[in-house]
Design a protein that fits this description.
The protein has 10 helices and 11 strands. By secondary structure, the chain is of the alpha/beta class. Strand 8 (about 285) and strand 9 (about 290-295) form a beta hairpin.
Length: about 350
C-alpha cells in the first residue's frame, strides 16, 4: 500500500474525496545583479539630488513595467547606454559563487531602496553560496513505501548553518510587473514553481523573471491532486511540464513541487524519470497579512523554505509587493537573509 503525503499547512485543499484518504505530513538560476538601474541612479542622486522623474519614479521604471505587462523580456537594460554604478553589471545573471549585488551597495543606498518599497530596514545580505552543496535527504516521516534510496528527496529545510531562508512562489496566476521590479531592486532571490495552465497566457512575464535571475521550477501542467492519478497520468503531468519549461525557457527544471504538497511513491518515481533531482516542500507559508508555520515554535530556522503563491488583491486583499513586504519584515526582524535555493540544492 502506497502512502499518500499531503501538506497540512497550505490553504489550498486538494479536490474530491481522494483527499480524505491521504495521510497528513508533519508538521527570481543564477541571480542577475539586482538594482542595477536604480542603484546607478541613486548613487548619482547622492551628489545631484535628481534620481527620479516628476512623481518620484526612477527613470526607466515605467519601461520595465511595460515590458513585463507586454510579456516581452526585451533587451538587457544596459542596451540603452545608461550609466552603471561602479562594480555593477546590468542585465546579466549572477554567476554561481558570486556575491549578491546588494553587498556592493553602500548602506545608504540600500536603505533608500528599502524605503522606496515600504521597508524600514533593507534586507540582510546573504553569504556567498557554499562551495559544496549540503547533502539533502528526505525528512523523517515524509518517506514513501518502497523507496530504494534513489528517489528524489522530499524536505522542508535545507541542512545549513547559514542564517538564510529560501523564498519559493507557486502556480503563476498573478503576473504583477511591480513584483519583478521590487525583487530586482532589493536583490531578493526566489524560485518560481510554475504550472503551465497558470502561465501560458503570458510566458513572457516569466521569461523576464528568468532573465532577472529567477529559477523556473516544475509544479505540473494542470495542478492536479497527484495521488488521485495513475502512474502514467502523474508522469504526463510532471514530464509534460518539464518539456514545457524547457521549450519556452530553454532549461529543464531540476526541482519539482507537487500541488498541495501531496505525493505518493508513483509521484517520486515518475519525477525521477523526468530528470527531477529534489522535491522541496516548505516550512512556512506566507500571506500578505500573516505567516503560517509547520513547526510548533512558529519561528524560522536556518535553511527553511518559505512558500507563497502568485496571487493578487482579488484572492488575498493584497498585492504581490504587499506580500513581499510582509515576508521581508518577518525574515529581516528574525535575523535572516534570503538566499537562492538552487545554490544550496
Amino acid at each position: 500500500m502506497q502512502l499518500v503525503r499531503q501538506n497540512e499547512k497550505s490553504t489550498a485543499k486538494p479536490p474530491g474525496p481522494a483527499a480524505s484518504g491521504g495521510r497528513w505530513l508533519c508538521g527570481r538560476s543564477p541571480r542577475r545583479p539586482a538594482v542595477a538601474v536604480l542603484a546607478a541612479l541613486l548613487l548619482a542622486a547622492v551628489g545631484s539630488g535628481c534620481a527620479s522623474e516628476p512623481g518620484g519614479r526612477p527613470p526607466g521604471e515605467a519601461g520595465q513595467r511595460e515590458r513585463a505587462l507586454a510579456g516581452n523580456p526585451g533587451p538587457p537594460p544596459g542596451a540603452a547606454g545608461l550609466p552603471v554604478a561602479p562594480g555593477l553589471r546590468r542585465g546579466l545573471a549572477r554567476l554561481p559563487g558570486e556575491r549578491y549585488e546588494n553587498a556592493r551597495l553602500t548602506p545608504a543606498v540600500r536603505a533608500r531602496i528599502a524605503r522606496k518599497w515600504g521597508l524600514d530596514r533593507p534586507p540582510l545580505i546573504a553569504p556567498l553560496p557554499p562551495v559544496a552543496k549540503p547533502r539533502v535527504t528526505t525528512r523523517a516521516g515524509f518517506e514513501v513505501e518502497g523507496d530504494d534510496g534513489a528517489l528524489p528527496p522530499v524536505f522542508t529545510t535545507v541542512p545549513t548553518k547559514d542564517r538564510v531562508v529560501f523564498l519559493t512562489i507557486d502556480d503563476g496566476a498573478e503576473k504583477d510587473p511591480e513584483l519583478l521590479q521590487m525583487m530586482d531592486e532589493l536583490d531578493i532571490p526566489y524560485s518560481a514553481f510554475l504550472s503551465d495552465d497558470e502561465v501560458k497566457d503570458n510566458y513572457g512575464y516569466f521569461g523576464e523573471a528568468q532573465r532577472l535571475g529567477t529559477v523556473l521550477a516544475n509544479h505540473t501542467l494542470h495542478h492536479p491532486y497527484l495521488p488521485g492519478l495513475s502512474y502514467d497520468e502523474q508522469r504526463h503531468e510532471i514530464c509534460g511540464q518539464q518539456d514545457a519549461v524547457e521549450a519556452r525557457f530553454g532549461k529543464r527544471p531540476r526541482l519539482f513541487r507537487p500541488p498541495y504538497g501531496s505525493y505518493d511513491a508513483d509521484t517520486l518515481r515518475a519525477a525521477r524519470t523526468c530528470g527531477i533531482e529534489a522535491v522541496p516542500l516548505w516550512s512556512a507559508e506566507a500571506f500578505p497579512d500573516r505567516m503560517e508555520w509547520r513547526e510548533g515554535d512558529r519561528d524560522l530556522h536556518p535553511g527553511d523554505i518559505v512558500l507563497t503563491h502568485f496571487r493578487g488583491r482579488a484572492a488575498w486583499g493584497g498585492s504581490m509587493t504587499d506580500l513581499v513586504r510582509a515576508v521581508m519584515r518577518t525574515v529581516t526582524e528574525r535575523g535572516y537573509a534570503v538566499a537562492r535555493l538552487e545554490d544550496y540544492v
